[in-house]
Amino acid sequence: AYLKGTLERKTADSLILDVQGVGYKVYTTATALSSCQALGTELKVHTHFYVREDTQALYGFLSEEELKMFEQLLSVSGVGPKAALSLVSNIPASRFGLTILTDDIAALTKAPGIGKKTAQRIILELKDKLKKEQVNLPETNCAVMDQESGKDNRIAESINALVMLGYSFQEASNAVSCVFKEDKSVEQIIKDALKQMFH
User: Fold this and answer.
1) CA–CA dist 187, 185 (Å, integer)
2) Average pLDDT over residues 159-166
3) Above 60 in pLDDT, residue 136?
4) How far is it, in rounded angstroms, from Cα 30 to Cα 141?
5) What is the domain partition of the chain in residue ranges?
6) Which residues contact 75 (CB under 8 A, 6 or more apart)?
7) Nearest to 32, CA basis, from 43, 23, 20
8) 64-132: which CATH architecture?
9) How is domain 139-198 classified at the CATH fold level?
10) What are 87-118's pLDDT values in tens digits?
């Protein structure tokens, strides 16, 4: 879902969006607030309508990836919209999957309001979900998924994780093949592959 309208006003933690004469208060990230400078400009925000017995609120994001990250965080027990918004504000959506897959507690706890126990719970509850996300790979490359050895399983898992982060299969495959070593874990392969692509 999304809202498309005119930016009427900004507060410390929200935007007021005029959609055909109706003003919507949309809570959003610090990044979105800083990037939306000029009032009166047209804006599109991807929204999540949060409903509980005692509250209803709209949360909006400038990209679908941020919205997906927010909703994934809300699925974690004990993580509410305020904590989820803090994390989306502090961790780029493109790096969120890697943060979870590599158990990067330090990155999660940099977000205001996120302690070590909450960070550990986020990793515990989301890691398997992220690993299980299906990635449609080109048929010509499916052979890598069919290998039974631990080596090929690690290669396939690493490529899948990188594709989930937005890289093409070819980019991911090339980077993983460059950095793969028998003694490396999946997490280490992913880290090294990312370094390889950034160079």
Assistant:
1) 5
2) 84
3) no
4) 40
5) 2-61, 64-132, 139-198
6) 125, 126, 129
7) 43
8) Orthogonal Bundle (1.10)
9) Helicase, Ruva Protein; domain 3 (1.10.8)
10) 999 998 888 888 888 888 999 999 999 999 99
